[in-house]
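note to self: the first set is below, dont mix up w the second
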Amino acid sequence: MGKQLFKFFSSLRLTVVCLAFGVVLVFLGTLAQVNEGLYQAQTRWFRSFFIWWGPAGAGWHLPVFPGGYLIGGILLVNLITAHIHRFQFTWKKFGIHLTHAGIILLLVGQLATDMLSRESEIRFNKGETKQYSESARGHELVFLTDAPDAADDQVVAIPPSLLKPGGEIRSDNLPFTVRIQNYYINSRLRERGPMVDTGPPPATQGIGPQAVLMPMPEDRSMDGTNIPSAVIELTGPQGSLGTWLLSPDISGGQDFMFGGKVWRVALRPQRYYLPYTIQLLSTKFDVYPGTDTPKDYQSRVRIENPQRGENREVDIYMNNPLRYQGLTFYQFQMPPIAAESERWSALEVVRNPGWLTPYAGCVMVGAGMAYQFLLHLIGFVAKRRKVQV
């Protein structure tokens, strides 16, 4: 049984089948981006083991096609087993071994990028200092007992993965239980009209009785923005404390009393705290003469890192990111026209531990193919000389 499995996974036919499925997957996944959007299509088609389908409104789904993780995983196992099965360390096959190792490194690096990479943003005005970056798509539920804008707040943060309708959250740091009654990926809030809106309010506490919640379809376009909202219920030892309507549009969060303390609850972009601070000192925005096309825009920032004793200034501009302690800071956005006091900048912060693997893999594949080509070329030239002699 073991020999048969090894033979199956090391066969060249399996390689061809995986490559064929991969071509079809790339074609279908690219087409799906038109209706599903870039991020959702990537998650559904390429960051999954199976593509699931079910009738509209049905509570069941069936796997109809292998996903990117499954195809890539089988192809990775196929390359490794085939390499072990046919491995013979000779200089004549060194180029082939190096090429195979490079392809394996590319597959492993792509998997590491999908599993470990993270993108976030830092938006700040001129002179402002930040010690955290924020997710552009994920939102967290937070409870605070201090000022919400302080960088060193002691907060209890509930990650986006737990914000599902019907979920119940308990924490040793919270003296109450949190129940997620509803969660909307995209929504809008407006003030309640006394004569027009006669239905029940979305929540009983905070701004809930004065607001109207309007669920919206998810915006899947590249430049679109989804504004989520949630309705939560807090329960203490004595029973329910009421329900709250939460949204990133509610500035500053909402306060309530419990256990002799003033608590603040908010729904905000998920934060990733840094062990150092970064301050925006100045901005520069240049356009090509006679046009509105950006030519160059850059931010000058100051990094203060007490752990390293650093206090230095750095310029971040187009095609010149800052790489610092495992993160890469790219110049992302900046307003072309603004008063000096209203200047702001946005940096994209990328964490990708496997960012070197594509370069190393391509170098190994190229070196292996070049070695094998030159080896055959030298052999061909040598044989030709013998024939001429």
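second set (the one i keep forgetting abt)
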Amino acid sequence: MIDLSTTYMGLKLNNPLIVSSSGLTKTLRGVQKCAEAGAGAIVLKSLFEEQIAAEVAELTQHVDSVGHTESFEYLHGYGEALGPREYLQLVREAKKTVEVPIIASINCVTDQRWADYAKQLATAGADALEINIGFLPHAAELSSADVEDRYTRILYAVRTQVDLPVALKVGPYISNFAHLADRLGIDRVAGPAFSVGWCGPGQSDKEITWQGADALVLFNRFYNFDIDIDKLALATGHPYSTSADIHVPLRWISLLAGRVTCDLAAATGIHDGRDVIKQLLAGATAVQICSTLYRNGLSQITLILQQLQEWMKAHDFEKPGEFRGQLSQARSEHPGDYERLQYIKALVGME
């Protein structure tokens, strides 16, 4: 008897397939359709920091120009509250309508205001939060330590406000991702790199203990742009991933599985049952799918689950936990195969 159920961030999922944050999950009807198609969990479309900031700016533009300070402050606060209002309603309605776990998502760049929003989402009934940090480090003045601190600050700010399971969806552009992943894991102790402002009266940095991420989602797929050589202008790149995009998250899932204390969810490049199986073998607890649903429709969820079950039956596995991480580096007799050795072989034909 094949049992696809799994536990992700302490949440009970009927299967490891999670519909990721997208336009497919921005409405109640979209959430219902994903649940009916067989999703194990659903991540709601992200609440964006920039979106709320733009709405607030538009709302207060006229008042600011004529110098009504009190009106400006009132409308600014009203705009920030209005931003998540519809989103909070979606969380409440989704929880009443479907039985699968509902994961709220906030897409942030800074730690300002997001701790408050996270608290509101928890109150609305979300089963978990996914902190989607859409931050592409590109400024020369930012050191690698500065980049890691930004991730950690945002996570810390949210953790101080909510007791819900928290996943951190991160980008791959980190100088040493293994170091950051270890730093973001559960049961962390804030080190000297943290600012003094985080400490309470009489506390030193080393005295602050806090829980890190319950899961890391690898990886955030950033907006792709192209160049139109005829118009000499920027153009929109291809919006959807392909199975060829699986390799970066696959590598890092396999390198981190068994070495970090939090769950790992794979994202990007997962289009069929084979892709799901690869990520589970590498050590993923769950997988997030999106592009394949836009390309093939929500019926792809049923097909992927069927392919997973058929493969498990053929290999005499009854539960994903029986083979999860079997091909991770931590369990490999040849760990060098995951790193430089294969790179050298591929380039120079060394045997």
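remember for set 2: The chain has one domain: 6-348.
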